[in-house]
Amino acid sequence: MNAHVPYEKYHGTGNDFLIIDATERVPDRGALAARECDREDGVGADGVLFLALEPAFTPPRVVMTLVQPDGGTAAMCGNGARCAAEWAMRRTGSDEVMIDTQAGTRHASRTHDGEIAVEMGTPRFEPERIPIIASEPVLEEEIEGLAVSAVDTGVPHAVAFVDDVDAVDLESVAPPVRHADRFLDGANVNLASPDGEGGFRQRTYERGVEGETDACGTGAFAIAAVARRLGKTDADSVDVRPPGGDLRIEFDARGRAVLVGPVEHEFDGDVRAIPPLVET
User: Fold this and answer.
1) For site-directed labelling of 207, which of 34, 72, 85, 189 has its Cα 20 to 30 A away?
2) Tens digit of pLDDT for each residue in 156-180?
3) What are phi and psi of 159, to 5 degrees?
4) If residue 117 lies in a helix (H) or strand (E), which one and from where to where?
5) What is the mean pLDDT of residues 53-81?
6) Cα within 13 Å of Cα(151), Cβ side
7) Residue of 66, 216, 223, 226 marked active site
8) Is the peptide bond before 131 cis (omega within 30 degrees of 0)?
9) In a 3-state reduction of DSSP, which class is residue 122?
10) Does CATH number 3.10.310.10 belong to domain 4-120+263-272?
């Protein structure tokens, strides 16, 4: 077996991923992700996308598996799906693809200005869908010191609106919520504050990364969905601004959302498919 496998590095508004063709044999994907996502000793990334392209379909399909830095998988990742779409579009010459994720199949397309838009589905506030211990939707309820609203946008999210996201120590306030017993599978934790232009600024502490990321697409969707649910906006197009750039969430009449933003190909390289032997 080849000791090394090629990868391509992509990011969507700073949310960065190593992309590896799923046909490459990697005996332990979790170990590879844990090793190479490390920003000091590895390549550095928020996750590894293993993608299987099926070009014979119209539009082409790509099967996406996201392995996170803790070695686990996530059912859905908005920016990861946008990066997967760009990767697949470059290989097929198509401006639209279907992405098969553990949270369902999503349509993605290239917009007229070159951004990538991906279907995100409908936000779910039912406690059993998140899942969270509650008898009714959790909206601005205190959990571990934050006024939290809980929503599933492909993965579980806790959203708290604050006056200024930069005035809050995210690394202190987020972990207790992320690990709160009421969130049965844990949760991503998002802080949001008005941006003064009708949209919202975003900071996210991401489950599986166990730290802050420059952007989170499902988190941006969660913020927009909760803002609409709480009456903080009635817009069908909501701008959300994480540290890594600007995202846009567009809702149709049935509440289904599309996540829109830029994607960039950074560089290529190769990583070890198996860890190096350790001499004893």
Assistant:
1) 85
2) 999 999 999 999 999 999 999 999 9
3) -120, 130
4) strand 116-121
5) 95
6) 25
7) 216
8) yes
9) coil
10) yes
Is it the case that residue 278 has pLDDT exceeding 70? no
Q: What tens digit of pLDDT does each residue of 202-213 get?
A: 999 999 999 999
The SS3 call for residue 69 is coil
| Under 8 Å between Cβ of 80 and 66 | yes
Set 33, 49, 77, 97: catalytic member: 77
Please tell me what DSSP assigns to residue 67: E
Burial class (CB in 10 A: 0-12, 13-18, 19+), 8: buried
> What are the tens digits of pLDDT across the range 28-58?
999 999 999 999 999 999 999 999 999 999 9
Cα-Cα-Cα-Cα torsion 210, 213, 216, 222, nearest 10 degrees, comes to: 60
To the query of whether residue 77 is one of the catalytic residues in this protein, the response is yes
Pairwise CA distance, residues 128 & 151, whole Å: 10
How far apart, in whole angstroms, are the C-alpha atoms of residue 197 and residue 279?
58
Quick check: is 37 catalytic? no
3-state class (DSSP) for residue 78: helix
d(CA 85, CA 44): 21
Q: 123-251 adopts what CATH topology?
A: Diaminopimelate Epimerase; Chain A, domain 1 (3.10.310)
Averaged pLDDT for residues 176-198: 97
Q: What is the pLDDT of residue 3?
A: 85
